[in-house]
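USER:
Before I trust my own judgement here, I would like a peer's view. Write it directly below this note and I will take it from there.

ASSISTANT:
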Amino acid sequence: MVLEHDPIEHFRAWLRDAEAAEPNDPNAMALATVDRAGNPSVRMVLLKDVDERGFVFYTNLGSRKAREIAANSHVALCFHWKSSRRQVRVEGRVEGVADGEADAYFASRPRISQIGAWASKQSQPLEGRFELERRVAWFASRYAIGAVPRPDFWSGYRVRPAMIEFWEDRPFRLHMRRIYRRDEGTWTSGELYP
């Protein structure tokens, strides 16, 4: 079976199942990073693309996650699809996406999301909601006509997986766990005890 040898196709199959079953955000994934001192941090982000190169998400490059990625490019992802009782864990290194890729994705976003990217000083203190609303109004006025350009402080990251583990609930806690490890570009796989 091809899924046993190709973890990206295996993931895509499970993501399609999740898109049919999950009521909200089947592409949501927990992203775990660590700071320079080794303190962990985790938050939910949205998967925007997946291919043989890895898993892509976008963010403000001044955000806490971006600062932590700059300090340590090793990260972990976790997808949990409660409706299908499945989970996928990914470990790997992060790299930035190419400017053209970030530009194309940014251009595909709704205009208000583009304005929001300009207005948000992500992860910085906010004195009050009015401050954010004022910034949104200012940038909406600045870019009232024409395309909204991608801010130079906003881009994407690709997690290049070194390990992908698939977990599926089974009766009597005899769960299925299949792990894939990549060594010099070649995937190997096996099963783990639950």
About this structure: The chain is about 30% helix and 35% strand. The chain has one domain: 2-97+152-191. The radius of gyration is 19 Å.
